[in-house]
Structures are given as C-alpha cells and as structure tokens.
What we know:
Layout: H1 2-8, H2 21-25, H3 37-43, H4 71-77, H5 130-138, E1 143-145, E2 151-153, H6 160-187, H7 214-221, E3 225-231, E4 236-245, E5 250-253, H8 255-258, E6 268-272, E7 278-287, E8 292-297, E9 318-323, E10 331-347, E11 354-362, E12 374-376, E13 382-389, E14 405-409, H9 410-423, E15 429-430, E16 433-439, E17 444-451, H10 456-460, E18 467-471, E19 474-475, H11 479-487, E20 494-501, E21 504-511, E22 513-514
Antiparallel strand pairs: 1-2, 3-4, 3-6, 4-5, 5-8, 6-7, 7-8, 9-10, 9-12, 10-11, 11-14, 12-13, 13-14, 15-22, 16-17, 17-18, 18-19, 18-20, 20-21
Amino acid sequence: MDEQAAAYGRPAGTTGAFAPTDVRLQPSSPTAPEPAPGQQAAFGRPPEVEGSFGADRPTPPPRPVPPPPPEAVLRAFAPRDGATGLGEPPGGRRPARRTAAAPFWKPDATTDPWRDPYAPAGLAAPAEYPAEAEAEDAQPGPVVVDAKGRRKLRLRDVSVRLTVLVLLSMLLVGVVGGTTAWFLGRTADEEPLLAPGTQLTSVSPGVSREPGSVADIAGQVTPAVVSIEVQLTNAGATGSGVVIDADGGYIVTNNHVISGAADAEDATIRAVFSDGSGSAARIVGRDPASDLAVLKVEKPGLVGATLGESDALVVGDPVVAIGSPLGLAGTVTSGIVSALDRPVRLSGEGSDTNAVISAVQTDAPINPGNSGGALVDGTGAVIGINTAIASLGGNGTTGGSIGLGFAIPIDTVRAIAEQLISTGTAVHASLGVNARTVTDGTRDGALVVNVEPGSPAAEAGVQEQDVVIAVDGEAVASSEELVVAIDRHAPGDTVTLELVRDDASREVQVELGTA
C-alpha cells in the first residue's frame, strides 16, 4: 500500500482536481508536422495551381424530370374517401403516433406482409367500384352493359316464364332429334358386303439377306438337290439325292431309297429337279454296308453341289438340311451340329441295308423323304447326306422328326462314291466277327458272339466270349463302335485289339481282310 500511495496518490499539500476545469475542457489543437520534401514533391499542390483541383469542372446537367404516371396507375393508386396523400387511411385519419401504451405492432401485424416479411400471404376480396355497380343497377334488365361496354345477362331479371319456356324448348329439340335418329337408323339400308374392284395397298420393305444366311444357302444348294421317285409294280418310294458330278450326271443317294428297284425288272427310277423337269435315272452302283448308292441321269445343264469336309466340323456349327420330306420337294430346314462320330445302326424294312455309320447328328428337322438329301454348312458346302432319324416309336422310316437326325459324313460319301463310279462296288475292311454290346457295370465293350472260320479274327486268335474294349488304343464301348473303328481302316491294315478274356486283359494283332 505504501508503494501504491507513493506512485498514484495525490501529492502532499494538494486538494481538488489535478488540473483546472477550463484547461481540461479546452479542445486540443495539434499542429500537423511539415511534410518531408519527398512527400511534398509527390503529393503537394503545384506552385501554379491555386484553389480546388476540381474548381474548373463542368457543371453536371440537371436530372431529368420523370414523366407523369399513366392514367391507369393514377386510377389504381389515387387517394380515395377523403385521403390527402398516397397510402393514407380513409377519411384523412392519420395513424396515431407510437407511444408506450400503443405499441408499434398491432394485433393484425402478423397478417400484414408489408410489415412482417415472414407473415403468411392472404387473399383479400376483389376491388369494388361502387360507381360501376350502381350504374349497372340503374339499367333496366335483363340485358345490361358494364363499364367496358360488354353486354351481359342479369339472371335476377329473367322471368320464371322465360326460363321455363327455354327449358321446354331444349327438351323438345332433344326428343325430336333422338326420335329422328332412331327412325333413320332402323330404316336406313345396310352397306353391301361385297365391294367389286377393291385393291389393297401393298408395300415392299427392304429385305437384307446376308451371305451365309439360310436364304442365301438355300438359293445356292437347292438347284443341286433332286427328288428321287421309285416306281414298282405294286409299290413306290420317294427320297432325295444330290448332284455330285454335273458333267457326268452322277447323283448320290441312300441305298435304302433305291434298293427295292435294284433287282426288279419293271422298276423305274426318276430324278425330278428343282425347276420341275425330270429325267430317268440308272443305278451306277450301291453299297449296303454304308447305305450309299450312285445314280446317273442323261440331262445337260445340271448344277453340281460343292462338297465340303466333315472333319472340319465342330459341335454347334449351323447347318441346313435340304430335301423332299414326305414328298414335299425343295424343303429347307435349319439347325446345328448336335454331335459328331455318333455310331448309328441303319436297317430298313424292304431293304438290304444293314450298316453302321459314324454319323453327324443334327437337330435340323429331318423326316422320311429327306433320305439322300444334302446337309450343308454355313458356306453352302455339303458336309453330309441325310440318312436316318431317331423316333420315339423306334422306327426311323415311318416316324417323324423329334430333333435327332443323322447324316453320313461327306468324307465317307466321297470315298464310297468314287469307288462306285469307278468300279460299281465298294470294299470295306473286315474283322470277321459278330458282336453285341455288353457291360459289367464298370466298363462297356463289344462281346464276340461268333467268329467266322478263316477270318482275320480267327487267324489272330480271337475267341468267342472275348470282349473287345479298344482298337488301336481307342476305347470301344459298343458293337457299333467296333464296326465303325474297323471301317476306318482299309483292307490289309493291321490293327491292335485289346481283349478281356477270363478277367484278364490282352492284346492281339489282326490283319484286316476284305468284306
């Protein structure tokens, strides 16, 4: 405390204010310091300039006087009912000044959007013009003219009699019109059913048939596919064929199509072409072991088919079948390759065909009469000769298509046809056994039922009750697969048979003979 009193306390011997009142209340007038020479040179007034910098500026033009407001605005916003100014209350009454007893916010302030921007909007009654309403009331009814010169009907002046008369008139018009329409509708003549000379409009939309489409393939191959008609004394048969050599007039077909006419003296075979013309056909040669035959016709200007390669096929390739199913020449169906190397046994009533082929399976619809017709790929090349179908009844001759058709691969057809055209016969490799399919629940094979004396199998030591399970290392699961495996070889080839005898496996070498 002694230190604070010494620092901030009043000096000893002094009373009252520290300074005189007049001195404290006098305003201070500080003197501005003289500018530096550099500031004077940069910001100072030049010596030759006196007075204000803008003393010689031109006087701005006077502001334009706004034009008077339009009459419509004056009529809308002019004071009414004794008001002396714009926006004043009616009767010249001015709002009371705000006092402590009369707050600025009145009870209706919450609904006044001009006072509270957050107040909800509200719709008021439309403006009324008493003078115009009185003018209309003064006019005699019922038709009056408003302030804008428009005529309108004043309903209160319409008499009851006039209203009733109008309603009755409208009712009478409706009754008369309805009766007339009903009468005319009953008595009017009906339109005739026939309209001679009628012509319907037609359009020709653009159709795009890309190369490789079914339509394009059919256009290429159909002229090379023929219908085969076989006439016997008391019977007949129909099938299909494919022109494989246009210059020589050679047509390939199935053996079971023409086998009935092979030994009959009074039988005739006729080939009918896509243009409707026909020609007599002769049998060049036939091979019951492969169900193939070759015919020859004497007709110039034939169109030959292009032969492809069946070894290049894969499952899923698109194919087209062309033939004469059920005697319907030029029928085209399409599908895909469903399977390859399918062993199928062929036999038919009234035919000497008893063959097993390694077929191309397809789901293209094939029916009786398609036999001997063409199965072509996406390029239009023939890759098989349609031969048989699977049927629920087990008869591939009289049954209908269920989506399982079989064709002889064109590689086999080419080899057999060349032999038939050259020599009239075809040779096949022979093992000399008869077999049937067996299985022990674990492995399938071909059980040797009979061995022909002196056959290649007998010379190699093959015995009855042997089960062939492989040929040259390829598994054999059925008797049909055994026949197909042997038929892939030529006479004189040596093959290795894997046999099961007395529950033991052994291999034997067999030199194939000629069938």
